[in-house]
Specification:
It contains 1 helix and 5 strands, in the order E-E-E-E-H-E. It is mainly beta and 76 residues long. It has a domain of 53 residues: SH3 type barrels (Roll). A hairpin with a 5-residue loop joins strand 3 and strand 4. Bound molecules: zinc ion. Zinc ion binds next to loops.
Length: 76
Amino acid sequence: MQIIRFEVGDTVELKKPHPCGTKEFKILRVGSEMRVVCLGCGRDMNVDRIKLEKATKRILSSETAEKGTAGIPSKD
Ligand SMILES: [Zn+2]
């Protein structure tokens, strides 16, 4: 199984939809326990990382991907 690298700000698509019908969640906090918010209804919840890895279909977008390898985002 592929290891998924979750990062704060990522939007992930899960295999099973939330009761509101949305499969997309945004990651608010990472760790052994993750915090995600449903993009459909705005409800946030804590999920074990293992459970989230198994439930994740794919990562839709990553805010950190745009920063490249510089590491530090520039501010105007
Ligand atoms: Zn929802």
